[in-house]
Amino acid sequence: xxxxxxxxxxxPLMKILLQQALQPSPRMEQAMPPTADLPSxxxxxxxxxxxxxxxxxxxxxxxxxxxxxxxxxxxxxxxIYSINTEGPGGLTYNLPTVWDGKIVPAQEAxxxxxxxxxxxxxxxxxxxxxxxxxxxMHRFMARDVEKR
Length: 148
Hints:
Layout: H1 2-10, H2 12-22, H3 26-30, H4 40-43, H5 51-65, E1 70-71, E2 77-78, E3 83-86, E4 92-95, E5 98-99, E6 102-103, H6 106-116, E7 123-124, H7 127-145
Antiparallel strand pairs: 1-2, 3-4, 4-7, 5-6
């Protein structure tokens, strides 16, 4: 029995499932309120964000607060640099490409998002819907980086 359990726990898929199970829940991570010094902090809630959109917004906030925003050559600052991709259920997901202070290739961003859990990221029926919703969010988040 111990050998069977050991084999099961060492299986790569089981390792991924265990990592996801041990991650803090999205609700726990969302509990961190946006800081009052961010211009978007009070207004972003007017969009009626879903928990997944709030999770993406917290990725933005986290990159700003931790100093892991990307300072681009043109003077702009990126905290998400969103891509959308088809994921589970044929839905279109908005995903960040800014991870650990750099813009990563799309495939790496997709892999990292999958490791975090697809259910945490905003998903929409179409690419156009995903783009439109991200643009609404981006208008608020852009204010946070204008003078950085």
